[in-house]
């Protein structure tokens, strides 16, 4: 195996400015998210999450992640199509 000298990385002013701008963007997003969480918990959603009813907890989680379950078809014709024997 051939050995070579380590590559030298240089930190440029443009790189530092880009890093600072991205870090500020992430901090503002984090603060906005925290503000939304604080407003959401003051509306009483936090109390609903602590209730013992599993359906309401499951519904709250589904709403939070944006999952909308569709009812499953119960008839065999909808599962296998319209085959005739």
TrEMBL record:
Subcellular location, record wording: Nucleus
Keyword Cell cycle set for record: yes
Any GO CC annotation of this UniProt entry: anaphase-promoting complex
Stated name of the protein: Anaphase-promoting complex subunit CDC26
Described purpose of this protein according to its UniProt entry: Component of the anaphase promoting complex/cyclosome (APC/C), a cell cycle-regulated E3 ubiquitin ligase that controls progression through mitosis and the G1 phase of the cell cycle. The APC/C complex acts by mediating ubiquitination and subsequent degradation of target proteins: it mainly mediates the formation of 'Lys-11'-linked polyubiquitin chains and, to a lower extent, the formation of 'Lys-48'- and 'Lys-63'-linked polyubiquitin chains. The APC/C complex catalyzes assembly of branched 'Lys-11'-/'Lys-48'-linked branched ubiquitin chains on target proteins.
InterPro entries xrefs: APC_suCDC26
Listed Polar residues bias regions: 73-85
Sorted UniProt keywords: Cell cycle, Cell division, Coiled coil, Mitosis, Nucleus, Ubl conjugation pathway
Pfam families named among the record's database cross-references: ANAPC_CDC26 (PF10471)
UniProt record similarity statement: Belongs to the CDC26 family.
Metabolic or biological pathway, per its Swiss-Prot or TrEMBL entry: Protein modification; protein ubiquitination
Principal subcellular localisation of the protein: nucleus
GO BP: anaphase-promoting complex-dependent catabolic process; cell division; protein branched polyubiquitination; protein K11-linked ubiquitination; protein K48-linked ubiquitination; regulation of mitotic cell cycle
Chain segments carrying region Disordered: 29-85
Origin superkingdom: Eukaryota
């Amino acid at each position: 195996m051939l050995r070579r000298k380590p590559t030298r990385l240089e930190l440029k002013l443009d790189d530092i400015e880009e890093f600072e701008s991205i870090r500020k963007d992430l901090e503002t997003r984090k603060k906005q998210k925290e503000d939304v969480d604080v407003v959401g918990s003051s509306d009483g959603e936090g109390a609903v999450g602590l209730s013992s009813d599993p359906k309401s907890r499951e519904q709250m989680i589904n709403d939070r992640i944006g999952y909308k379950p569709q009812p499953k078809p119960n008839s065999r014709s909808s599962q296998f199509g319209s085959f005739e024997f």
